[in-house]
Amino acid sequence: MSTHLPSLAAPAQGNPTLEKKLDRKWIASLFERGAPTTYLKSRKELDYIGMPVGGIGCGTLYLGGDGRLWLWDVFNKNQTGVIYKNVKWHEKIQFNYDFLRPFDGANYVEPVKDIRPLDQGFAIRIEHDGKTIMKRLQADDWDEVSFEATYPMATVRYVDKTVPLSITLRAYSPFIPLNADDSGLPVTILSFTVENKTASHATITLAGWLENKASIYSANNEEYYRVNEAVRDAAFSGVMASSNSYNWADETFTSAGDFGNFFLASFNANTKVNTDASPDLTAPLFDSENATAAKIEQRKALATVSNTTTVPPGGRVELNYAVAWYFPNLSFDLLKKEGGRYYANTFKSSRQVASYVHANFERLSSETKSWCDAWYEQSTLPYWFLERTFLNISTLATTTVHRFQSGRFYAWEGVGSCPGTCNHVWQYAQAVARIFPSLERDTRERVDLGVAFHDDGHIGFRGEYDTQPAIDGQAGRILGIYREHQMSADNSFLKRQWPKTKHALQYLLAQDTNGDGMTDTQLENTLDAKWPGEIAWIVGLTLAAVKAGQRMAEEMNDEPFAATCKRYVTLGAANMEKHLFNGEYFIHRPDAQKGRTVIGSYNTCHIDQVYGQSWAHQVGLGRVLDKTKTIFALKALWKYNFTTDVGPYLKEHHGGRPYALPGEGGMIMNTNPRNEEVPYGVKDAWQVTYFHECMTGFEHQVASHMMAEGMTEESLILTRAIHDRYHAAKRNPFNEVECSDHYARAMASYGTFITACGFTYHGPTGSIGFHPKLTPHNFKAAFTAAEGWGTYAQEKKGKQQVHQLELKYGRLMLRSIQLERADKAKDLTVTLDNNFVKATIEQEGTSAKISLAQAVVLEKGQRLSVVL
């Protein structure tokens, strides 16, 4: 399917956030299954595409729209932004800058493209019916190139009227949910399929090349040289590209961030290897061999691998290659004790990485393909929706994220921007905990309740980099602890963490100074200010965290503390609904003494006003806030904050960073429905500029909440507005920008998938549940659990409902299943691979709780069926 630029609505008149003028046919199209988003050369949609194709914490390597690799940020430079540049801007923004930095959206306004510090590519020679055709596999050489944007595995197709064969590239790095180590390999796999649909044989030669740029910044004069070393084996051949110094005692050189090596590998038999080659489209590229080590000084150091094979009529061949890298010298001043890159624990060179991938190729590739099949192909959800809610997890394969030899997960907020795995940003990111829960469990234990934990119970919001508390970050991390417990196989994680978790909760409770159940202490928040008073979004987020605390206390048999938490939530929710709800939406009540002399959201319509209830839906806490008032608040956000074109709004409201441009739709952070002259208390605080921006992480959070509350249409429209802002004709679809590139908060998008499925899970109790919001009569989607993943499907035929869980990976222990059911079922049948399982059913509102007589364990390939 070809995706065109968005047509959200006709230009709005009057108040741009009030008049949507949405096309009903366009809205209906959002619900359609459709096909994978495919970008085309012919529509000039390939230039900005940069899909991360490395492993977790392995740097940033982009797959371009035509299948070539680019950017190559694997050298531990840690610059801000995928590249650092300033872009001239027409108005003053934060701190009165009249230009944009990567912090401010420079790479949103002027998207990055064609950054190629080293030369890499593939070419093909075709001999067919007496003719020889030679082409590079890049856009310039083909009539059409298409890019299918299904992260983590993209498909690139090459089409030309002169080429009688079908040529397809599938590019990826191994990506296996729940397996963080095998999803953290510094490697990109490039699998080419060539099909011959003609009536005669074709002989093809596929050649790949890679320039040796090891020590790209350090080896810059005649003191250094580069070495390409050949490796030859039956089905594993290639070239290791490294650097060296004539000064044997040059420790500065070997300890530099860019010291390391690359490996260009062929996983095919009869590979020709050339350690000193040229990428010109001539016979030497395809046929030359030089298997000796080449020592290359002060000139381009290119290596090639090539394979020749015959494709019979109606036949097909697959040729597999990989590019691996090894640059282990990662270092931060405050984190030296953590060691270098995590992959250095297992591998000592890129050759070892490539060798491991080759030895395990069938498993790594099949499990990656199995996930892609479960996520995209088997689902009934719209392709575009599956793409946008999932692709932000590619942030893990960028330099936003690092993983040290100690095993510690560490991250910026965005690429090179704002250190310390900032808890008030990362707590929005729902994706990692569901796909790689071990990383989040370790971060809660090692960082939040480890190096960032203080004697009074507060969690330093940037670990070693800023030890003060952030009120929203504290609440979010407590909710995260509960989520990580749910995504565990047993309760050992919570048992270890409970004493400190309880202390963190007690600190949170103490921030309510007047005992009304509403946090009112002036502490740091994610909008980089300390707001006084009682702030709906912080009060509600605290209530959700304390309710999670109640659940954890109950599981830990701490009944007195559970009762304390329950009383606090009951009191706080009642007061929040009474005092902070203005009849239309929730507000910020000023501090009694300070009034509105300090920055705050006050009577404005703030994007996060019911964020606590949104979080509650992510972890199955049920209601924290009254449903009617919550929906009123979400409808107010839709009415006042969402616009199909931000242009008219930005004409009147200046200073915000341009994360959405005129002609693009989005949800404004704060609007002023009461038309107050000084709505934010002050005029001159630089943080006021945040209120006029569209930041995708916040938008995704609202979309996930709307989906949970039954505002399905609004949720899809908001998500699609983001998806269309990141259309490849405009900018990189895989890089949602906030304060720098690949911003962590954007991983809130996965939360919308969770609520679309109505997914709940509690690993230690063996409980799982589904309540789909889209096509519940015929629904199928992927799910992940503590030890396994697979697909869930439900189908309604009259009064009969059929529900099926099929495991694709690992194992799944179950004791109970919560399913959607409007009325009480008369009959129940549960089978595991056609073997009957004893079970009982209990109706709870619109849900049916299926309790199994004894726990069952699904293994890979098994299917549990429930017929109501």
Automatic annotation (TrEMBL):
Residues 468-750 form the Glycosyl-hydrolase family 116 catalytic region domain. It comes from the Bacteria. It holds the Pfam family Glyco_hydr_116N. Residues 50-363 form the Glycosyl-hydrolase family 116 N-terminal domain. This is Glycosyl-hydrolase family 116 catalytic region domain-containing protein. It comes from Chryseolinea lacunae.
